[in-house]
Amino acid sequence: MTAPKIDDPDFWRSGPDRELAEFRRRCPVAELPDAGFWAVTGHAQITEMSKDPATFISSKGVLIGDVKREVSGNDSILYVDPPRHVTMRRIVNRGFTVRRVAQLAELAESIVATVFDEIDPTEPVDAVDAISAPVPLLIIAHMLGVPGEDIPTFRKWSDAIAIAATDPTDPRAMAAIDFFGYFNAKLDARTAETDPPEDLLTAITADAELTRAEQLGFCMSLLVAGNETTRHLISGGLVALAEHPEQRAALAANESLIPTAVEEMLRWVTPILAMGRTATCPVDLGGTAVAQDAYLVMLYTAANRDETVFGETADSFDVTRSPNPHLAFGIGEHFCLGAQLARLEAKVVFTEILRRWPNYQILDGVEVGASTLLREITRLPILLQPNS
Ligand code: HEM
């Protein structure tokens, strides 16, 4: 069996779930000499790695492409190892407490209502532009204090940074350059305020522990981590429900199932395909010997279809699945900081969609992106209210 071309963005365009499943069954931990890294596809092995951040570190790279670049002391929290990571996480957690996220529920509801009110549901629209992109974007913009007039630029930066994650030399990635100047000024202004509001920017500027580079790195991580991911979860969830109309009808009839359905969408879509780690010493991983300095790519997307965990129905979409120990948010030290927020956004979006337009139809012309990081839907033609 030839090894899947995990480092080729086009591989991900082809809908490779079955190929990955076969590969995982044969070798859940496999060296890919041509690619220069290891592929870890088993749920148990990814869990083991993620819970041992001393042996499997993030500071030498986390993206598939990082294996080919020099990564050193990146300022994004994603690249920081303990003990520094524990300190950073403590600071930024203040922006994501249960109370803070609960406060955002009202904001999410009002953003979703405003965004949906602007759509003419009797005409075809691109759901990415009309629904999936604006909702998370407006919420993150609010959290980072970005005013309405700057939102289009904010989206441009987000897209450019996501492109850079797959290919930093792509000329479109240059659009992100102004991001740093903009947020540097914003952080300066916030630091100078005598009575700052109790929000995320204040949480990261109030603590002298974070350097300015780290503060900027955190704003950048939020922009991509909290924006593109949730966008693709919403788009992928729309497609999954349309492909399973009986489950969509069950959800529309019983909203209390929506949180369970969101977990299944997370498992099914797995918006972040994979993340990497570097072994700091020779190690046995699920019975396979891994050499020191090996770069290991944890394929969350493959682990989320692992039948040793999800049983015979691993390859079926089931909005009632419970328990659902998916790894869409990672696990362990770097578990997604925004998991509760993403869940909240998806819950509000799908509740409102199923109330307003339970029979929406996906039209021809769906386009998927080529990315080694994100499972992207870049265009999603939709008719929200057919037959009216
Ligand atoms: C469906 C939506 C989302 C998915 C699938 C997702 C997925 C992930 C994953 C897999 C990781 C772990 C990275 C690793 O293993 O190294 C992660 C980390 C992170 N996520 Fe999310 N995420 C989502 C939404 C969000 C949102 C809404 C935010 C913030 C507003 C956010 C902020 C972060 C941050 C800051 C980290 C880094 C945490 C750390 O390194 O300690 N994410 N996310």
Automatic annotation (TrEMBL):
Single GO BP term: cholesterol catabolic process
Keywords carried by this UniProt record: Cholesterol metabolism, Heme, Iron, Lipid degradation, Lipid metabolism, Metal-binding, Monooxygenase, Oxidoreductase, Steroid metabolism, Sterol metabolism
Cofactor (UniProt): heme
Family matches, as Pfam families: p450
Pathway: Steroid metabolism; cholesterol degradation
GO molecular function: cholest-4-en-3-one 26-monooxygenase activity; heme binding; iron ion binding; steroid hydroxylase activity
InterPro entries listed in its UniProt record: Cyt_P450, Cyt_P450_B, Cyt_P450_CS, Cyt_P450_sf
Database matches in PROSITE patterns: CYTOCHROME_P450 (PS00086)
Protein family (similarity comment): Belongs to the cytochrome P450 family.
Protein name: Steroid C26-monooxygenase
Organism lineage string: Bacteria, Bacillati, Actinomycetota, Actinomycetes, Mycobacteriales
